[in-house]
Specification:
The chain has 255 residues and is mainly alpha-helical. α10 packs antiparallel against α11. It starts with a helix and ends in an 8-residue tail after the last helix.
Length: 255
């Protein structure tokens, strides 16, 4: 870091004459630097996040390079002080588009979801992320049969965070997020933690009484009842499911 290696690596990614392989290795090297938390803010101060965003946006970049860029951004977002600069630079939009990219690797999509999940932990980011359609991409990731179970769990966690903001309830339900969350609870391959976060997100959405009919029409109550009956479900997930059924006015489904 003292030698300014990160600045040279950033310049290499920005160089239009650099080969796709060179840019991939530059992104990989930045990933290594970011394993040290003390490097996070200096790299953002140097604008490394802007170059990584551009790499994800670059149609000539290899899928592996984009994966390393997403991994690096994921590391940068572990530092809360970096959230605002990265959102201001539109990094969340590039991460959303990476999830939407059919040529992206499953690992790249997982890192993108993880980065968005980190951003969603800051309440001030909730509405900007929804305004950019991040919730739609996270829903698509849950629906994607090629997505890893970890990626789906992370997507559910991010949607859970976004659902904490009341102003997001209507857009999420309008986008059918509740249907994807219901399907995740029904999915036998989903992790118990993923089901817990899906149930918690539905609990937040049910706090808005105008969503009740939509949730019941989608059969959310049936999945929540099944979650309560599921011997592999966590105690926390079952507790949330009970609360949600009562909020929906369906106490008769609670054992």
């Amino acid at each position: 870091m003292a030698a300014g290696v990160h600045i040279s690596l950033k310049a290499l990614i920005d160089d239009p004459s650099a080969t796709p392989e060179a840019k991939k290795f530059a992104a990989m090297a930045l990933c290594s630097l970011l394993k040290t938390a003390a490097n996070h803010q200096p790299l953002v101060a140097a604008g490394v996040h802007i170059s990584l965003k551009a790499l994800i946006d670059d149609p000539s970049a290899t899928p592996e390079a984009k994966e390393y860029a997403a991994m690096a951004l994921c590391s940068l977002l572990k530092t809360a002080a970096n959230h605002q600069p990265l959102v201001a630079a539109g990094v969340h939009i590039s991460l959303k588009e990476l999830i939407d990219d059919p040529s992206a690797t499953p690992e790249a999509k997982e890192y993108a979801a993880m980065a968005l999940c980190s951003l969603s932990k800051t309440a001030a980011n909730h509405q900007p992320l929804v305004a950019a359609g991040v919730h739609i991409s996270l829903k698509a990731l849950i629906d994607d049969p090629s997505a890893t179970s970890d990626a789906k769990q992370i997507a559910a966690m991010a949607l859970c965070s976004l659902s904490k903001t009341a102003a997001n309830h209507q857009p999420l339900v309008a986008a059918g997020v509740h249907i994807a969350l219901k399907a995740l609870i029904d999915d036998p391959s989903a992790t118990p933690e993923a089901k817990k976060f899906a149930a918690l997100a539905l609990c937040y959405l049910s706090a808005n009484s105008s969503n009740h009919q939509s949730l019941v029409a989608a059969g959310v109550h049936i999945s929540l009842k099944a979650l309560i009956d599921d011997p592999s479900a966590t105690a926390a997930a079952k507790k949330v499911a009970v609360v949600t059924l009562r909020t929906l006015g369906l106490s008769e489904l609670v054992p």
